[in-house]
Amino acid sequence: MTVGMAIRGVSPLCDIGDIAAAWTLEVLIPRLCLAILFLSASLLKLTLRYPIRVYVGSHPIMRNIVRRCPSFQKDYRPPSWACGAWAQAIVYLYRSWRNKHLRGFAREVLQLPDGESVSLFYMAPPGPMREALMQCKEDRREEEMGATIQALATSMPPDDPPPPIVVICHGVFQTAADLYEFCTFLTETCGYIACVFNRRGNDMPLSRARFNTVGDQCDFRFILSRMRDFFPNNCFYGVGISAGSSLLARYLGDAGEESELEGGVLISGGYDMELSLQHMTPLADLVVTTHAKSFFLERNEETLKKEDGPGLQRLKRSRSMQEFHEHLHIFDGKASREEYFQTHNPALVLGKIARPVVYINAYDDMCFPGHFTFQFKKLVEECQLATVLHVEKGGHGTFYENWDAGSSRAFQCVREFVDCLQKG
């Protein structure tokens, strides 16, 4: 007897027991089977572990760091519902939108030697330093030159060991809001000071027609030198994410032993800036190129048009990031595309890095896929202080794990790396 027959009264002998039995047979059992099947698949996915392939430079310092950092070695376990790169990207975008409030950050506007302005966002550990930053923010003194960094420097406890400062070079379109969870982890869990460096045209509109997608070495050296003046006793560490890894790696390679940074972690970098643009997946290339036109060109159209109207139009017609960079040298003060990459490509100096450095990449990265980036494991032969971590999953700059994607393996790697160098 079917449920329909029972309800319509086809059989005069039907009763509640018949209806319950029919409903159980036709509705409940199939649904339970589907639920069990789905749960089994989810649990199977949860039990899958992705080993991390670790390639370590021959320097004893680097080998000691790897031995003391369990996050470099234990299997990566992403959530079953956000295992793929695009799923992790959606989680990241939602959290970035949710964190637009910038709570806990204090902004500093800094004028560069050529008259352009950039900004830094500071977040300090809970206590006197954070209170000083928030007071500066409440007093609306963030736009005063030096007010924010001065408030942080003067509130640092004199008797305690100074906390390390982690300088973050973010991706092409990232902002402090996108890094809110990372900075909260660094300050509240680790006790570090976090500083987000916003390159030209990122947080503030351009006043001069000069920009590029990774950041300017002169600007980065300037802000590090200025920070050293205010924090002479703190250790500085760098974290580069995506395009920001090119800025950081190039700085470390060019600076060598003169580096202000004690070490660096490069997350989802392309290693070779020029070649990596040729290996982006079509969808990622389309998304990034479209956003680049909106982010850099539309927001600064009047300024760029005054400098080189035809050059601006060529950038607007670009259909890929590779084509975008064919013409970008015009607005970077370079005579040619070759000079542009000669100036910014970190691949030319990776072997000269004289500080411990860790590279983290995922095979399913949609911007810099593993079939391209994984060849750079040979880097540990050129640079004894390098370690390369290759993960099967993790997406682009996310590496979320645990059932709720509440943690990132990249966060843990940064924490353990900095702690190792701090303790010596």
Report mean pLDDT, rounded to a whole number: 89
Number of strands: 11
Radius of gyration: 26 Å
Q: Can you tell me the overall shape?
A: globular
* Structural class by helix and strand composition: alpha/beta
- Can you tell me the residue ranges where pLDDT is under 50 for at least 5 consecutive residues? 1-14
What fraction of residues sit in β-strands?
Answer: 5-15%
Query: Which series of helices and strands comes N to C?
Result: HHEHHEEHHEHEHEHEHHHHHEHHEEEH
Percent helix range: 40-55%
Structural features:
424 residues, alpha/beta, nine-stranded mixed beta sheet, two-stranded antiparallel sheet, 17 helices, globular, disordered N terminus
Compact description:
This protein has 424 residues and is α/β, with parallel strands linked by helices. It contains 17 helices and eleven strands.
Summarize the topology.
Blueprint: H1 3-8, H2 16-47, E1 52-56, H3 60-68, H4 85-98, E2 106-111, E3 117-123, H5 128-138, H6 147-154, E4 165-169, H7 180-189, E5 193-198, H8 217-230, E6 236-241, H9 243-255, E7 261-267, H10 273-276, H11 282-298, H12 301-316, H13 321-327, H14 337-344, E8 357-362, H15 370-373, H16 379-382, E9 386-391, E10 400-401, E11 407-408, H17 409-423
Helix pairs in contact: 5-6, 11-12, 12-13
